[in-house]
# Entry
Amino acid sequence: MSDGKKNERSLYKYTALIFLFALLIIIVAFFGQSHLESAMVTSDQTEQETSGIADRAAALSEENLRLSSEKATLEEENSSLKAAAEEASADSAFLNRKLAAYETVMDAVSLYISGDTAGAASLAASADTSLLSPSALSIYNMITAEQ
# Structure
Protein backbone atom coordinates (compact mmCIF):
# COMPACT_ATOMS: atom_id res chain seq x y z
CA MET A 1 0.00 0.00 0.00
CA SER A 2 2.77 2.22 0.44
CA ASP A 3 3.23 2.18 -3.30
CA GLY A 4 -0.38 3.21 -3.79
CA LYS A 5 -0.08 6.03 -1.29
CA LYS A 6 3.06 7.23 -2.99
CA ASN A 7 1.25 7.20 -6.29
CA GLU A 8 -1.64 9.12 -4.75
CA ARG A 9 0.68 11.69 -3.26
CA SER A 10 2.42 12.01 -6.56
CA LEU A 11 -0.93 12.39 -8.26
CA TYR A 12 -1.98 15.07 -5.74
CA LYS A 13 1.32 16.88 -6.23
CA TYR A 14 0.91 16.84 -10.01
CA THR A 15 -2.73 17.91 -9.73
CA ALA A 16 -1.79 20.71 -7.34
CA LEU A 17 1.07 21.72 -9.61
CA ILE A 18 -1.23 21.76 -12.66
CA PHE A 19 -3.85 23.70 -10.67
CA LEU A 20 -1.26 26.27 -9.56
CA PHE A 21 0.10 26.54 -13.10
CA ALA A 22 -3.46 27.04 -14.44
CA LEU A 23 -4.08 29.67 -11.75
CA LEU A 24 -0.84 31.41 -12.67
CA ILE A 25 -1.83 31.39 -16.36
CA ILE A 26 -5.25 32.86 -15.49
CA ILE A 27 -3.64 35.65 -13.43
CA VAL A 28 -1.11 36.44 -16.17
CA ALA A 29 -3.86 36.39 -18.79
CA PHE A 30 -6.00 38.78 -16.70
CA PHE A 31 -3.22 41.32 -16.26
CA GLY A 32 -2.11 40.83 -19.85
CA GLN A 33 -5.66 41.53 -21.04
CA SER A 34 -5.87 44.68 -18.88
CA HIS A 35 -2.53 45.89 -20.21
CA LEU A 36 -3.57 45.07 -23.77
CA GLU A 37 -6.81 47.06 -23.38
CA SER A 38 -4.97 50.07 -21.96
CA ALA A 39 -2.43 49.82 -24.78
CA MET A 40 -5.26 49.74 -27.33
CA VAL A 41 -6.84 52.84 -25.76
CA THR A 42 -3.47 54.56 -25.90
CA SER A 43 -3.11 53.43 -29.50
CA ASP A 44 -6.56 54.85 -30.32
CA GLN A 45 -5.66 58.11 -28.62
CA THR A 46 -2.37 58.21 -30.50
CA GLU A 47 -4.24 57.57 -33.73
CA GLN A 48 -6.68 60.39 -32.94
CA GLU A 49 -3.82 62.71 -32.02
CA THR A 50 -2.04 61.77 -35.25
CA SER A 51 -5.22 62.49 -37.16
CA GLY A 52 -5.54 65.84 -35.37
CA ILE A 53 -1.93 66.66 -36.12
CA ALA A 54 -2.43 65.76 -39.79
CA ASP A 55 -5.50 68.01 -39.96
CA ARG A 56 -3.61 70.87 -38.32
CA ALA A 57 -0.67 70.33 -40.66
CA ALA A 58 -3.00 70.45 -43.67
CA ALA A 59 -4.64 73.63 -42.38
CA LEU A 60 -1.26 75.22 -41.72
CA SER A 61 -0.07 74.21 -45.17
CA GLU A 62 -3.10 75.84 -46.78
CA GLU A 63 -2.59 78.98 -44.71
CA ASN A 64 1.09 78.99 -45.64
CA LEU A 65 0.19 78.83 -49.34
CA ARG A 66 -2.33 81.66 -48.90
CA LEU A 67 0.20 83.78 -47.03
CA SER A 68 2.88 83.07 -49.64
CA SER A 69 0.63 84.23 -52.46
CA GLU A 70 -0.40 87.27 -50.40
CA LYS A 71 3.27 88.03 -49.76
CA ALA A 72 4.04 87.85 -53.48
CA THR A 73 1.12 90.18 -54.24
CA LEU A 74 2.23 92.63 -51.58
CA GLU A 75 5.83 92.54 -52.82
CA GLU A 76 4.64 93.37 -56.35
CA GLU A 77 2.48 96.18 -54.99
CA ASN A 78 5.39 97.43 -52.89
CA SER A 79 7.75 97.51 -55.87
CA SER A 80 5.18 99.36 -57.99
CA LEU A 81 4.64 101.86 -55.16
CA LYS A 82 8.40 102.36 -54.83
CA ALA A 83 8.63 103.01 -58.57
CA ALA A 84 5.72 105.47 -58.34
CA ALA A 85 7.37 107.19 -55.36
CA GLU A 86 10.68 107.51 -57.23
CA GLU A 87 8.86 108.90 -60.25
CA ALA A 88 6.96 111.36 -58.04
CA SER A 89 10.21 112.38 -56.38
CA ALA A 90 11.81 113.00 -59.76
CA ASP A 91 8.74 114.97 -60.88
CA SER A 92 8.84 116.95 -57.64
CA ALA A 93 12.51 117.80 -58.13
CA PHE A 94 11.82 118.89 -61.72
CA LEU A 95 8.85 121.01 -60.63
CA ASN A 96 10.91 122.58 -57.83
CA ARG A 97 13.63 123.54 -60.33
CA LYS A 98 10.98 124.92 -62.70
CA LEU A 99 9.36 126.89 -59.87
CA ALA A 100 12.73 128.30 -58.87
CA ALA A 101 13.35 129.43 -62.47
CA TYR A 102 9.95 131.16 -62.64
CA GLU A 103 10.48 132.78 -59.23
CA THR A 104 13.85 134.08 -60.40
CA VAL A 105 12.28 135.57 -63.53
CA MET A 106 9.44 137.09 -61.46
CA ASP A 107 11.95 138.64 -59.03
CA ALA A 108 13.85 139.97 -62.04
CA VAL A 109 10.60 141.46 -63.39
CA SER A 110 9.99 143.10 -60.02
CA LEU A 111 13.49 144.65 -60.12
CA TYR A 112 12.96 145.68 -63.77
CA ILE A 113 9.70 147.42 -62.93
CA SER A 114 11.33 149.24 -60.00
CA GLY A 115 13.96 150.58 -62.41
CA ASP A 116 16.96 148.42 -61.54
CA THR A 117 17.50 146.99 -65.04
CA ALA A 118 21.09 145.93 -64.39
CA GLY A 119 20.13 144.01 -61.22
CA ALA A 120 17.12 142.54 -63.04
CA ALA A 121 19.32 141.37 -65.93
CA SER A 122 21.88 139.92 -63.53
CA LEU A 123 19.17 138.06 -61.57
CA ALA A 124 17.40 136.84 -64.71
CA ALA A 125 20.68 135.46 -66.07
CA SER A 126 20.80 133.02 -63.15
CA ALA A 127 17.46 131.42 -64.20
CA ASP A 128 17.46 128.08 -66.04
CA THR A 129 15.96 129.08 -69.40
CA SER A 130 15.34 125.46 -70.48
CA LEU A 131 12.54 125.25 -67.92
CA LEU A 132 10.71 128.43 -68.99
CA SER A 133 7.63 128.54 -71.19
CA PRO A 134 7.77 130.58 -74.43
CA SER A 135 5.97 133.56 -72.82
CA ALA A 136 8.27 133.48 -69.76
CA LEU A 137 11.25 133.17 -72.11
CA SER A 138 10.16 136.30 -74.00
CA ILE A 139 10.00 138.21 -70.69
CA TYR A 140 13.46 136.86 -69.84
CA ASN A 141 14.79 137.98 -73.22
CA MET A 142 13.26 141.44 -72.75
CA ILE A 143 14.95 141.87 -69.34
CA THR A 144 18.36 140.55 -70.41
CA ALA A 145 18.35 142.48 -73.74
CA GLU A 146 18.30 145.81 -71.91
CA GLN A 147 21.55 145.17 -70.09
